[in-house]
Specification:
The protein is α+β, with helices and mostly antiparallel strands. Helix content is 52%, strand content 23%. Strands 2-1-5-4-3 form a 5-stranded antiparallel beta sheet.
Length: 189
């Protein structure tokens, strides 16, 4: 059975809807304005809360940066090479190297200290060396206790591998995982 719908019935429905709309036009207008006003009130209060939270985060971030600068400054004139990495998206990004690290490992490769900041070991060292560094940093980030590693790097001048005795430790600062490392010279071993 087919339903029949005549055009005159459709026309009557449309005329009735138009008359109803004209009759209650102000009611529809003010109810829409009332709805928008109420919904915007809650949105406005949410935006204010987010702005307050953003200011708190910015303030805390600047305090953390100041603390990090103060903490790392204590290593600046330290005679042994020291570095700091932060874990970001599964990679360990270099955040700090002291002067001894720069002179021993970056300057011979033609990098400034600031070229290395923000890069990973894969950007500086060969694939084999960087893979070993990454695996050890990852295990340290999970385990957390300080460790002593025998590592090696490819020397630029001689193209030979040099063995290093390295101590690494982890610091968790808020939600960041920081990995610190220090090369121990042969005399101390």
């Amino acid at each position: 059975m087919r339903l029949r719908f005549s055009h005159t019935k459709l026309y009557k429905w449309i005329i009735t809807a138009i008359r109803f709309g004209k009759r209650y036009k102000t009611l529809f207008t003010y109810s829409g304005l009332l709805f928008l006003t109420i919904s915007n009130f809650y949105l406005r209060s949410d935006v204010i809360d987010l702005e307050v939270e953003l200011q708190k985060i910015k303030s805390e971030n600047s305090k953390l940066i100041a603390d990090m600068v103060y903490f790392n400054r204590s290593f600046e004139d330290f005679p042994l090479p020291v570095w700091q990495k932060v874990k970001r998206n599964g990679a360990f990004v270099m955040q700090y190297v002291n002067k001894a690290y720069y002179l021993k490992y970056l300057e011979p490769r033609g990098f400034s200290r600031y070229d290395y900041m923000g890069s990973t070991d894969f950007d500086i060292y060969d694939q084999k060396t960087a893979s070993v560094f990454h695996a050890r940093d990852l295990s340290l980030a999970i385990d957390g206790s300080w460790r002593r590693f025998d590592e090696s790097i490819l020397e630029v001048e001689t193209n030979q591998r040099t063995r290093l005795d390295v101590i690494k430790w982890r610091i968790i600062e808020r939600q960041d995982t920081l990995i610190y490392g220090m090369v121990i010279p042969e005399k101390i071993k």
